[in-house]
Amino acid sequence: MYVRAVPPTDLNKNTEWFTYPGVWTTYILIVFFSWLIVLSLFGSSPGTAWTVVHLSHFFVTYLFFHWKKGTPFADDQGIYNGLTWWEQIDNGKQLTRNRKFLTVVPVVLYLIASHTTDYQNPMLFFNTLAVFVLVVAKFPNMHKVRIFGINADH
Amino acid sequence: MITIPYLTALSTYFSYGLLFAFGQFRDFFRKIFDWWHASNLQGYAPICLGLEDFYTRRLYLRIQDCFGRPISSAPDAWFHVVERYSNDNNKTLKRTDKINRCLNLGSYNYLGFAASDEYCTPRVIDSLNKFSASTCSTRVDGGTTIVHKELEERVANFVGKPAAIVFGMGYVTNSAVLPVLIGKGGLIISDSLNHNSIVNGARGSGATVRVFQHNTPSHLEKVLREQIAEGQPRTHRPWKKIIVVVEGIYSMEGEICKLPEIVAICKKYKAYVYLDEAHSIGAVGKTGRGVCELLGVDTTDVDIMMGTFTKSFGSCGGYIAGSKELIQYLKFTCPAHLYATAISPPAAQQIISSIKVILGEDGSSRGAQKLARIRENSNFFRSELQKMGFEVLGDNDSPVMPIMLYNPAKIPAFSRECLKQNVAVVTVAFPATPLLLARARICISASHTKEDLIKALEVISQVGDLVGIKYFPAEPKKQQQEGKRTIKLE
């Protein structure tokens, strides 16, 4: 019923909220409820609904984790302005529990989406592309790498 | 240690996610709208990058009427709050001429010196007539009057150190002294919940900054051992100097620092201790001398003691107390002493008079009464709130008590409902506190009477039921139990 919240040693207010209890559960619950909403709004088959959820999850997480840089407040005087949220989390330390969880979620969604559509072709291609881009973006070797200068600083 | 009900944590994350999503949508449409209507500032760079002021524009401005309320009287136990209204959904607020007389639960008025005092105010007015409102000069040029000299001696005496230096502003004391004490090649280890002035001063000094878990001496020891073993980054040479910065009472938690253990660890590893007593000087301890007196720590063990006069002494400014060599060094190098205007003489006289009242040197026992009253008031208020089922942080004897709210919607609800019933509280949200842990912070004063506190408790209890923040089960009232017992006997 009750959980304990220990204040973390992360000074970056943009990412320290991710270390408190309950975040992973909220993330999974939001994904599940959006599947229910898509299913009830469009009346499609469960497989198509999972594909829609998977692809919109790809767009949203790519935009907020790997595209937008900096923090939404000016208090820290712009020291994180060149880093995306993924590069800021856990102070830049790689392969922590949070990062491993966030890498597993798109893969699990991909497996569910492709299983429920029976691996049929147009959906399978887009799903595979989405999960490939997301997982590669989360590799430790891609820390602060900007391919072809896309999204680099001015 | 904060205990959150799990469902509350989930709903708080969901609420913030929803607010964030709405903010992003509105920003997206605003971008399209602005691109459509070309502006007349072609070629100029924007003042803010798009993402930087997102929090201020989309979250803070929605509940702006809960923050920054203007008042039109002295911040005593009861004060006048000016009413404001807004025509464009809180984007701009306009003042009216009407005022509300409200109970003040937000000012740092720990000993009641914020309003006119029978001993201090006549002397302050005399000093205003004699020395005028400002020295119009820095301390080094022509700004050191006899009031400043007396103030520095009295502060050093009060705190228990050989010498002290006084600055005009409390924030500046931290952010201008830390860069002077330590530079590149040094190490600052600060508590994770330290005040913004310390964070600013540490960043400005150029030293390496490491953070240890709030009030956990074992983690401090772990960080110290790790850092001493590794040495400076990249060169691995030994550190030139290590300073550990802690606060006496943490203003957002109301917790008292575990000073004896921290001082023992710093002695073992030969690090300096910098104690920021902004909220604890004058408010805790038997004679009001701060956490060192309360916890029984010898003042010679704490190397640098810093404090402010805004909270318990009813004035403005800050001080640093330490050994004679340290203060002499600061007088030669600290930019706040060399280039900033000296503290105003009436303000300095207020501090001197309030120290005299606290120590009983004005011939009455008002100081001791005030100290006893603030202790009783804080303990009474805290225990009553906990009995009602609120989650209240802070240790016993601490006059700061945050009541946890968590959900972002409960912040304006609590604030506005309390104001409707003429109780003014201060609510604090992200980014001053962590995202999940929004709270309403109550500061008890020695000038609150028992009736004031009981009225406040009633109002808070009603509003708490309405808003839904009684996260713990309430203790059953004693009278009901006695009633049941008498019925059983019959």
The helix/strand class of chain A is: mainly alpha
Provide the succession of SSEs of chain A. Answer: EHHHHH
* Mean pLDDT reading of chain A: 86
Shape assignment of chain B: globular
Q: Can you give the mean pLDDT of chain B?
A: 89
**What is the number of beta strands of chain B?**
14
Give a quick account of the main beta sheet of chain B: strands, pairing sense, barrel closure. 7 strands, mixed
Helical content of chain A (DSSP H or I, runs of 4+): 40-55%
Number of domains of chain B: 2
How large is the radius of gyration of chain A? 17 Å
Distance between the termini of chain B: 46 Å
Portion of residues within helices of chain B: 40-55%
Q: Sketch the major β-sheet of chain A.
A: none
Written account of the structure:
Chain A: The chain crosses the membrane at residues 21-42, 48-65, 101-117, 123-140. Chain A: It is found in: Membrane. The complex is a heterodimer of chains A (154) and B (490). Helices cover 54% and strands 3% of the residues of chain A. Chain A is an all-alpha fold. Chain A has one domain (16-149). Chain A starts with a strand and ends in a 17-residue tail after the last helix. In chain B, strand 2 (78-85) and strand 3 form a beta hairpin. Chain B contains 16 helices and 14 strands. Chain B has helices at residues 6-36, 54-60, 120-131, 146-159, 170-181, 196-205, 217-230, 259-269, 291-295, 324-333, 335-338, 345-359, 366-388, 410-420, 450-467, 478-489, and strands at 2-5, 78-85, 94-104, 163-167, 187-191, 208-212, 242-247, 272-276, 304-308, 318-322, 400-404, 423-424, 426-428, 439-443. Chain B is globular, with a radius of gyration of 25 Å. The two termini of chain B are 46 Å apart. Chain B has 490 residues and is an alpha/beta fold. In chain B, the strands form three sheets. Chain B has a seven-stranded mixed β-sheet, with helices on both faces. Chain B has a three-stranded mixed β-sheet with strand order 2-3-12. Chain B has a three-stranded antiparallel β-sheet with strand order 11-14-13, with helices on one face. Chain B has two domains: 57-104 and 369-425 and 440-471, Aspartate Aminotransferase, domain 1 (Alpha-Beta Complex); 119-359, Aspartate Aminotransferase, domain 2 (3-Layer(aba) Sandwich), CATH 3.40.640.
